[in-house]
Amino acid sequence: MSSKFPDWNNLAGFGEKMLDQALGHVGSLAGRMLEGNVRLGVTGLRRAGKTVFVTSLIDNLIRGGRLPFMDVVASNRFLAARLRSSPDRSAPRFAYEKYLANLTATPPHWPAATTGVAQLRMALRYVPVSSMRRSIQPISTINLDVIDYPGEWLMDLPMLNQSFAEWSSLTLELIEHQPRRQIGARWLHWLSTVSADQTADETTAKEGAAHYTEYLHACRRSQANLSLVQPGRFLEPGELAGAPVLTFCPLPAPASGSAPAGSLWALMSGRFEDYKTNVVRKFFLEHFARLDRQIVLVDVLGMLNAGPAALHDMRMALTACLEAFRHGRGGWLSKLTGGQIDKVLFAATKADHIAASQHGNLKNLLDMLVSEARNAIRFEGATVDTMALAAVKCTETVTTEHQGRKLACIQGTPLGRQKPTVLFPGSIPDGPDLFPLDIAQPYRFMDFEPPAGVGRDGRGLPNIRLDQALNFLLGDRLT
Ligand SMILES: Nc1nc2c(ncn2[C@@H]2O[C@H](COP(=O)(O)OP(=O)(O)OP(=O)(O)O)[C@@H](O)[C@H]2O)c(=O)[nH]1
Ligand SMILES: [Mg+2]
Predict the structure, then answer these.
(1) Which domains does the chain have, with CATH numbers?
(2) Residue 24 pLDDT more than 50?
(3) Could you tell me the distance, in angstroms and rounded to a whole number, from the CA of residue 44 to the centre of ligand 2?
(4) DSSP β-ladder status, 293-298 and 140-148
């Protein structure tokens, strides 16, 4: 790198004011800079780790001290990153400072479940690789846009492409199977007391929506931790709590094949279409438009804990959501929004919940779970990769001896406890046989507290493979 540029790769200890001053030095070059934009879609079902991932991504790009395998950092070309105001004023700013303060507080706190949309833009400055480009443009900038939202809302995406009849039929098909049949017994009973052809009235619609919402909440709370729960706003209504647009539920098709105007079916179907147009389409058009890159975060370990029904359900939920994105240049979402995602990374999150020696198996398992979507995305021409990562590393792998055998364990503070402890987290099979019939609960991966004092060294939040993830997603835009 030319000596006229300060070495800002390690920004440890730089305060906001110093960073401002430092950036001021290159301000005179601003006129010679061209700016590009990258919109990164952070996709994930609820509790997959989106908010923690976005917080760590921002923190690590700002501090730059824990991304050794990002090419732009390794080749000493990364100058600095800073937050910028987003050009889109329709959503609140992602509360990075609050989440970071909570993570690094004493005692530390994870973010609460997200209840609304938030967005953030960062500017990343780097020195281009090519000397020819450097002679014209010594410093380049890209703006990175990310948004965060409740994972529940992602499940609305497949509904956009369905009619009320199709959605109702699929939902009713799902509830024929356990554990849903038992969970949804009250709503099913209510359904048996109404017919699609009957005259619509608001009280009946409200009753149906209330029973159905309760069913969705019970699915989310259930041991099986079900992911395929729609509509997402019934669970996380955001600013729509109590709005009439949320007063509908699936219905069995009318016996005659079509229902008259003024019937319960007509009312529910009309509200379903309203919901699609005014809530779902609006959200995805505003926030998922023109995505360039996508990371799909998957809590594989959480699903293993919850058992085969949870894993099966998560797979269906992910496949349904990714269908919208998966065609790269020709998918219906990209046609709707004009986006063209050309790189997709599937990431198994919370890899720090297991020993490092298990990461390979975790990645392989994720590969297997998303194989269908991954192949379809590749077929359409986008580049795909999978990896196991942790946005915030809360444990260390340690080796212990048990009955003369070496065991790969982890050391960290389990959620709800105060002191670090060493434990054997269990292992992940390296084949498709995930749930042996003779073991009731084969997996008990634990959640961990963020380590005391995490992130205070000013190098960025400790992580596992965040640099490799960012290199895959952004590396080519930083050359
Ligand atoms: N150990 C560890 N735990 C993590 C990590 N990322 C997420 N978690 C755990 O997963 C929980 C959920 O993470 P979030 O980032 O809030 O998940 P989300 O996808 O934003 O969830 P919603 O807002 O509900 O959609 C956190 O409270 C942590 O317990 C990680 O990198 N390491
Ligand atoms: Mg969140």
Answers:
(1) 16-154+287-392+455-478 (3.40.50.300), 157-280 (no CATH)
(2) no
(3) 9
(4) unpaired
